[in-house]
Amino acid sequence: EVQLVESGGGLVKPGGSLRLSCAASGFTFSSYSMNWVRQAPGKGLEWVSSISSSSSYIYYADSVKGRFTISRDNAKNSLYLQMNSLRAEDTAVYYCARQLVHSVALDYWGQGTLVTVSS
Amino acid sequence: SYELTQPPSVSVSPGQTARITCSGDALPKKYPYWYQQKSGQAPVLVIYEDSKRPSGIPERFSGSSSGTMATLTISGAQVEDEADYYCYSTDSSGNHSVFGTGTKVTVL
């Protein structure tokens, strides 16, 4: 069974940093591109970043480029999101999601971890 | 930046057909995908690559696309189909993904 479990969320002050993790199991992690998607309270979904299976291709939404860094460790079946210079508008539930091979569809999602940026 | 536009809400009676549209300039060249999100839950993929259904998704969900418009159709909507629905695709480069603005579907 495919499982994605996010962790690392919490309360952080504006300007602070946080590192999210996503532990993957039930599939060959190293064969899949992975994504981070976020959802602010009461708002819609926002794609944040993607990373290819071997980390060769990395893309970011304009809203986080230069502040967030996506990475992965295929040996540990883990995906990460390093978030720096956090702003109030980064407050959201952050989901990790697996990307279908040869597609951009996100077929499996974790349950999300809440990041709150507030003083 | 690239945008996908959806109507904020759609309301239908049980058994009727609900249609949700998604408009985007790159849709003639990039596949649309559709997600269902129920309150407090993670999104679920219901349609991919225009009209394909993942296993476990009821046949009443279908997708189509023409020009800059994609449509998700729920034929014979059920009460359990009440949810927010999002289209999803990429910009013309294929490198940056984007979600639509979301449509709240009410079945009552």
Structural overview:
Chain A is built from no helices and 11 strands. With 119 residues, chain A is an all-beta fold. In chain A, the strands form 2 sheets. In chain A, strands 2, 4, 5, 6, 9, 10 and 11 form a 7-stranded mixed beta sheet that branches. A 4-stranded antiparallel beta sheet of chain A has the order 1-3-8-7, with no helix packed on it. In chain B, 36% of the residues are buried. Chain B is an all-beta fold. The termini of chain B are far apart. In chain B, strands 1, 3, 4, 7, 8 and 9 form a 6-stranded mixed beta sheet that branches. In chain B, strands 2-6-5 form a 3-stranded antiparallel beta sheet, with no helix packed on it. Helices cover 0% and strands 44% of the residues of chain B. The mean pLDDT of chain B is 96. Classes of the chains: A mainly beta (119), B mainly beta (108). The interface between A and B is medium-sized, with 22 and 26 residues.
Number of helical stretches of at least 4 residues of chain B: 0
Q: What coarse outline of chain B follows from CA principal-axis ratios?
A: globular
Helix content of chain B: under 10%
Radius of gyration of chain B over alpha carbons? Answer: 13 Å
Question: In whole angstroms, how far apart are the ends of chain A?
Answer: 40 Å
In sequence order, what are the helices and strands of chain B, one letter per element?
EEEEEEEEE
Q: Count the beta strands of chain B.
A: 9
Average predicted local confidence, pLDDT of chain A: 97
Regions of chain A with pLDDT < 50 over 5+ consecutive residues?
none
Q: Structural class from helices and strands of chain A?
A: mainly beta
Name the quaternary structure: heterodimer
Indicate the mean pLDDT of chain B: 96
Beta strand % of chain A: over 45%
Q: Which chains have the largest interface?
A: A-B, 22 and 26 residues
User: Which class of secondary structure composition applies to the elements of chain B?
Assistant: mainly beta
Would you list the SSEs of chain A in sequence order as H and E? EEEEEEEEEEE
Number of helices of chain A: 0
Number of strands of chain A: 11
